[in-house]
Design brief:
Bound molecules: flavin-adenine dinucleotide
CATH topology of the largest domain: FAD/NAD(P)-binding domain
Mean pLDDT: 90
Helix content: 25-40%
CATH superfamily of the largest domain: FAD/NAD(P)-binding domain
Largest sheet: 5 strands, parallel
Strand content: 15-25%
Shape: globular
Radius of gyration: 25 Å
Length: 456
């Protein structure tokens, strides 16, 4: 019996209450679900994914009291929980274009896992070497650990299993009411960075968001084992499964010494999930159930073919990775032409390099490559919802048209945006102003101070 319970019991006896039942004596303390809390901080980052991790670390490293709210149980978002664990592209045309905190985390992850970086001096030309060979295959489990450690070391207060239920803006501050596992918390802060990927906070605050009638499919990512590709009699196995089975062999080539340390195709298997949408718990649940059900059908059927009798799932990601949902309507919307022509914006805060890359179910991926020497740029205005104060976004939901977004959404670009948004939000606090009014030369200077690469 605990000391406190003994004291209670002795007290009860001395008061002549010795007949009190044990249930009463051991009455439970107030259950945490009945409590609600109030906290203050400088910056709230919502979404601990690709962009949000970097934004939170940067804000905290600049001395801002930072809270990171993540609805899941770990950091990294699409890179880790979704299984797209090959961030790209940090390099263009033989030069590094994105550095800073994103590069710090990714290169530390590569080094701690004993992996090798691609040879960035070999320039992809879309015929002999494709762009993805400059992506960096990382161990996603290790990345979640490093991301969490870096957040904690910087002083970020991480809150898993939590989501904002409402937000309001009063007297130059945001009040964010969150719920998580039945508890509610009121967080008062000066700046918010929406890194939800779906522009959730922007929409909740009442600002306009953009969306296509039809969105790109999501992917439920998995890997298979229990068979040898080279031993399979492919004539007896339907053609639609050949690529899926071939993946195991291609993924193995990762550990071999390919010239660019990256296999000739992306190292995962996936089920396409039409119109997959992570915006609400209902739509993301539907996307997960659809993908899992399809995978189960595949496994059942595959096991009936010769050589595949022992096939098994060796890895399955816990949620469907989502390509496209809502984007913000920002102070500026980056267009396809801006992107592929590498337009120079005065307020450019980061580079971005990838082909336009639109996935369509049942059709070939639409890809457009940038001309030699051209690199896309991200203007600060595309991270600021039109009409907002003290609110920014970072990640795939930046203000952009559909084609530009299909390139801008890649991971290194999201990381660059995360760092830039946090620097801007921190300066806005110091200058007692809103992000769009922070002088761009101050943002550039601080970004450089923090190791980021700023478009010249
Ligand atoms: C199948 C697929 C293949 C891809 N291939 C590549 C590739 O080859 N190379 C490449 O670089 N990029 C690729 N991408 C693109 C890239 O992975 C994503 O666009 C990018 O990771 C998005 O980053 P983000 O920070 O915007 O969102 P995410 O990384 O998805 O992070 C969003 C985070 O916010 C959290 N969240 C959402 N809503 C809330 C809420 N209301 N409250 C609290 N938390 C919330 C989520 O749980 C998540 O952790 C691919 C994407 C997909 C889906």
């Amino acid at each position: 019996m605990k000391r406190r319970d003994i004291i209670r019991k002795v007290g009860a006896v001395s008061l002549g209450l010795a007949s009190t039942s044990l249930a009463e004596v051991h009455s439970a303390p107030q259950h945490p679900l009945n409590k609600s809390g109030k906290i203050n901080c400088d910056i709230v980052v919502v979404g601990g994914g690709t962009a949000g991790v970097i934004a939170a670390i940067q804000a905290a490293r600049l001395g801002k009291n930072t809270i990171l709210i993540e609805s899941g149980s770990q950091l990294g978002g699409t890179m880790t929980t979704g299984g797209v664990s090959f961030p790209g592209l940090f390099h263009a045309w033989g030069k590094q274009i994105i550095g800073g905190i994103g590069w710090e985390l990714v290169s530390e992850c590569v080094s701690l896992n004993g992996d090798k970086l691609p040879d960035f001096s070999v320039i992809p030309d879309n015929t002999t070497i494709r762009h993805w060979r400059h992506q960096i295959a990382i161990n996603s489990s290790l990345y979640t650990l490093i991301a969490e450690e870096k957040c904690l070391q910087a002083g970020v207060k991480v809150r898993y299993y939590e989501s904002p239920a409402s937000i309001s803006f009063k007297r130059n501050n945001w009040l964010v009411k969150t719920v998580g596992k039945g508890t509610s918390t009121e967080i008062s802060c000066n700046q918010i960075i929406d890194c939800t990927g779906n522009a959730c906070i922007t929409a909740m605050a009442g600002f306009e968001v953009l969306r296509e009638d039809e969105t790109q499919p999501g992917s439920l990512i998995f890997s298979l084992d229990g068979y040898e590709y080279d031993d399979l009699d492919l004539i007896k196995i339907p053609f639609k499964y050949h690529n899926l089975l071939r993946q195991q062999m291609l993924t193995r080539s990762l550990s071999e010494n390919t010239p660019n340390n990256f296999p000739s195709t992306v190292p995962y298997n996936y089920v396409y999930v039409p119109s997959a949408d992570s915006t609400t718990s209902v739509t993301h649940t539907e996307a997960n159930i659809y993908g899992r059900n399809e995978l189960l059908k595949i496994i059942r059927e595959l096991r009936s073919y010769p050589g595949c009798e022992n096939i098994r799932i060796s890895n399955l990601k816990s949620e469907t990775a989502i390509r496209e949902t809502y984007r913000i309507l920002g102070l500026y919307t980056v267009t396809r032409e801006d992107y592929i022509e590498g337009v120079d914006f005065e307020d450019a805060i980061s580079y971005s390099f990838y082909p336009v890359d639109l996935h369509r179910e049942g059709k070939k991926i639409h890809q457009e490559y940038l001309k030699e020497g051209v690199v896309g740029k991200i203007p600060l205005r595309s991270l600021i919802p039109k009409g907002s104060k003290n609110l920014m976004v970072a990640g795939r939901c930046l203000s952009s048209d559909r084609m530009a977004n299909s390139a801008l959404r890649v991971q290194a670009s999201c990381m660059g945006m995360g760092q830039a948004a946090a620097v801007t939000a921190s300066l806005a606090i110091e200058l007692n102003t809103s992000p769009e009014k922070v002088p761009i030369n101050k943002i550039h200077a601080e970004l450089r101070n923090q190791g980021a690469i700023v478009p010249a």
